[in-house]
Amino acid sequence: MQKFSDDLENKKLYYGFMTYKIFIDGKEGTTGLKIFERFSNRNDLEILTIDEEKRKDPVEKAKLINASDYTFLCLPDAAAIESAKLCTNPNTVIIDASTAHRTNPDWAYGFPELDKAFREKIQTSNRIANPGCYASGSIAILYPLIKSGIIAKDYPVNIHAVSGYSGAGKKAIAQYQDPKRNPELDSPRLYALTQAHKHLPEIKLISGLDYEPIFNPYVCDYYQGMTVTVGIHSRLMAKKASAQAVWEMFNEHYKDCRFVKVAGFMGEGTLTEAFIPANTLTNTNQMQIFVYGNDERVIITSRFDNLGKGASGAAVQCMNIRMGLDEGLGL
User: What is the pLDDT averaged over residues 49-75?
Assistant: First the structure.
């Protein structure tokens, strides 16, 4: 760590302010492009770029990864694992946006608002796994419910979620934006029908569940934005609580958070109608938590940008925290 500190001090002396070298492995993808966009007004970052014809060349990638202070992996899982292995510089911080390392205990899980321990691990780790979008919305609800004792670890959780099609990748985006597209794309489409969605392992592990939940996600005909909803039956609660008491618990849990805010009970002060649209936090790093329902059935919904707090925004926030900077810089 001493050499790392000395290197940073030398940068201060040379540039007059702290500067960092950044490499985005997979800059052509949706998340990589969004991360790059968020760096457009940052004068403390030097972006390392790879020649287009060499972007899959492991020798060239290794050179850039090990020359960087921070590398973002915006790749499919297998490719992210291979790129992480290319890092031999002990001072390079890897932030992986794939699913590959989210359940690996050696990696920090990049959701600092969940608990003090999550933030502290991000602050000190050179390996940070960026949460999945659906996972972020689910865990933001389930972690406090389990930690507070309102539901037990073996609660039969059922998650309902909707997302804009931007989260489905380049191929799906092209399908949705094709003027001659299949009319079925005009309708919300339920998927993950085998209950084997890639976010389920991290939802179970990070939330503290004994079993993976039922997960029913829909991809819908709008570009960006997400809601994730969990319903709780009062009769199955481990610790009995009214809907108001559940809201108070969430309000206390996230009270000091900059990017996760709990709306007033039943959406008071946030909702103008009795609807929760999914696309109102587009291009932000914000997440809102809603608690509503009644004392027999309590409903909790998280709303956020699947490309923001659900992807690129969270990655940049984690980088800022690891750097010791204002976590909202560039966000």
Answer: 93
What single DSSP character describes residue 255? T
Half-sphere exposure of 245 (CA within 13 A, CB side): 13
Q: Specify which residues 289 forms β-bridges with.
A: 262, 302
- Bridge partners of 215, per DSSP, are 159
Query: pLDDT band at residue 5, thresholds of 50, 70 and 90?
Result: very low
* Count of CB atoms situated within 10 Å of the CB of 99: 19
Query: Which helix (H) or strand (E) is 116 found in, with range?
Result: helix 116-124
DSSP bridge partners of 214: 158
- Report the distance separating Cα 14 and Cα 32, nearest Å: 29
How distant is the alpha carbon of residue 265 from its chain centre? Answer: 25
Question: Residue 10 pLDDT > 50, yes or no?
Answer: no
Of the CA atoms within 13 Å of residue 134, those in its CB half-sphere come to 27
pTM for the whole structure: 0.91
Instruction: Round to whole Å and give the CA distance between 330 and 313.
Output: 9
Taking residues 91-116, what's their average pLDDT?
97
Tell me the catalytic residues: 133
